Inverse folding.
């Protein structure tokens, strides 16, 4: 939403149609991210007090039904994507390349994918990316997401076997953050 507002002509309100499309797209695709998380972490979720009642972990929803629901969410997201300009379609589809790091750095994956809309929103209005505007917005969103995920992780009492996984994840996040700062410098 921020990038759509920033891309609006000075003195004009942001495009209401684009705001609506992006609001719905965020709902569908963030929901898809949560569905993927529920499917991939279903065994771990059963061991953590805060997550053991999630639908797939508790057995209320089978993995097959979860995959079907994921398919619906992704199709709804695609329906929104095809309403954007060509550059935005390519940029939106390229976010699928971020799916591969999911197994090694879930918090970084969440930050990079859930904030992709900062790039996409500007592009949908302007037809291209202005790095001076959208990269600081994108990186800020990624850092905010990493911080919020770290706060949740610290608050949750996890079984001992999961603590080592989280400490590795924290180190990887730090390495990614330092790498981004070095690239931007």
């Amino acid at each position: 939403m921020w990038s759509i507002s920033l891309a609006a002509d000075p003195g004009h309100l942001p495009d209401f149609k684009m705001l609506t499309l992006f609001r719905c797209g965020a709902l569908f695709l963030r929901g898809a991210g949560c569905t993927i998380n529920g499917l991939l972490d279903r065994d771990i979720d059963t061991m953590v007090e805060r997550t053991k009642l999630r639908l797939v972990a508790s057995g209320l929803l089978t993995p097959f039904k979860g995959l079907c629901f994921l398919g619906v969410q992704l199709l709804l997201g695609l329906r929104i994507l095809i309403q954007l300009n060509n550059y935005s379609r390519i940029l939106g589809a390229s976010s699928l390349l971020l799916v591969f790091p999911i197994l090694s750095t879930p918090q970084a994956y969440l930050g990079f994918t859930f904030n992709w809309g900062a790039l996409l929103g500007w592009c949908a209005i302007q037809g291209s990316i202005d790095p001076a505007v959208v990269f600081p917005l994108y990186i800020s969103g990624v850092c905010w997401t990493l911080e919020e995920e770290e706060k949740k992780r610290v608050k949750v009492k996890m079984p001992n076997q999961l603590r080592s996984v989280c400490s590795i994840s924290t180190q990887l996040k730090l390495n990614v953050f330092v790498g981004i700062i070095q690239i931007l410098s």
About this structure: The mean pLDDT is 81.
